[in-house]
Amino acid sequence: MTATAPAAGTGPRAYAAVDLGASSGRVMTGRVGRDLLELTEAHRFPNRPVRLPEGLRWDVLGLYAGVLDGLRAAGALCGGRLGSVGIDSWAVDYGLLDADGALLGNPVHYRDARTEGVAEKVWASVPADELYAATGLQYAPFNTLYQLAAARGTAQLAAAERLLLIPDLLAYWLTGEQGTELTNASTTQLIDPRTGDWARGVADRLGVDLGLFAPLRRPGDPAGALRAELLAELGLTGPVPLTTVGSHDTASAVAAVPAADERFAYICTGTWSLAGLELDAPVLTEASRAANFTNELGLDGTVRHLRNIMGLWLLQECCRAWGDPDLGELLREAAGVPALRSVVDAGDAAFLAPGRMPERIAAACRDAGQPVPESRAEITRCILDSLALAHRRAVAEAQALADHPVDVVHIVGGGTRNALLCQLTADACGLPVVAGPAEAAALGNVLVQARAQGLVGDRAEMRRLLARTQPLERYEPRGDRAAWRAAEDRLAGR
């Protein structure tokens, strides 16, 4: 999309960003003008998966109800007038529709066990190195491609006429129009990151029917308008367009990195940590595949060359097991625990499933011959040191693989509220860390909507607006970097 300069005399407008994470959803109202970028939470709601006899599923109807409640609240905040709505969410998962457009069951959760052992069967038809060369996507057991392979032969897939990724499914219910947004589609392992189109050769060899997917859309494209009957229900004055945004939440979050130039790394923090670089072209080398870096598409044809790290999921699961203690107090206690006493591999798939996380972390330390963390503060410090160490490895390896040096690390998302993690990341990387904005995905969502209507210019202008208007915190590296190198060697068994 070519950016359009704001029209003379254009005043602020209000936009609704539907931003769905793996543990909660929210609808944010954003006001955008020439020197204005304000975000207000209209409604927040839980995202609780449901374990059925057949496996782990998303409660997508509950999510849709939360979205409607959120749009109603957003409308109330702006007098019933919204300039546009945009939707982003987590990646890879999807809903299947029958010939009448009705949903065929609740979407499968990416943490469901159905894809165990499936990748090896896929690689028997398309070897892993060929798959990476064609799609540039890291190995993750829950990639959409493996989910489809696991679903082959099921009655549900046989009855399906359409597959919609989660944000596109909600957009369909809101507007009646179907599409497949590109940044999210690039996580399916069915997109060629060089062309931004389907990897048809891969799909053909694996028997994936690309006709299941609706036509591709790109951030900034129109995606219909809210249905007339919804406008009355939500108290909105129509028409209210739906604008395609970076519907993968990481794409929206990276669009909201307030970087001054291209010499930056980013870490999008939340349930996952996504650490990497924004590039003009994918890195499809064997070294990149061996390092398990992915090439996902971003705004304006950019590539997000990054690694998935387990992220604050580790701490979230521990807190759940502990009965949700006061996080601020827990972090204060963890700050007093000796650094790097015990570390685990924060990217290890052994931590992917929910349940008994404190015991699993303790067991990993015991198996590695390290001191076993026992108290809640010790386990928390182990998690945060391990995440900072994983951030260090990802940032260093991304620079080497892409031959793209950086001067600063930007942390965005929920982890920006964790000052200890931000400082540890600066210490581990040996680079300054700029933390903020916390609601990066929602801000990126809003900015793409505003840009589509001419209120904001190009990506650089979006980032300048973010830097001027959003609270940011800078952390300078401190301490002995040799201790981090030693911890890295210890974890690698060197």
Automatic annotation (TrEMBL):
GO terms for biological process: D-xylose metabolic process; rhamnose catabolic process. Residues 85-254 form the Carbohydrate kinase FGGY N-terminal domain. InterPro entries: ATPase_NBD, FGGY_C, FGGY_Carb_Kinase, FGGY_N, Rhamnulokinase. Keywords: ATP-binding, Carbohydrate metabolism, Disulfide bond, Kinase, Nucleotide-binding, Rhamnose metabolism, Transferase, Xylose metabolism. Transmembrane segments: none annotated. Pfam families: FGGY_C, FGGY_N. Residues 265-452 form the Carbohydrate kinase FGGY C-terminal domain. GO terms for molecular function: ATP binding; rhamnulokinase activity. Belongs to the FGGY kinase family. This is Carbohydrate kinase. It comes from Streptomyces minutiscleroticus.
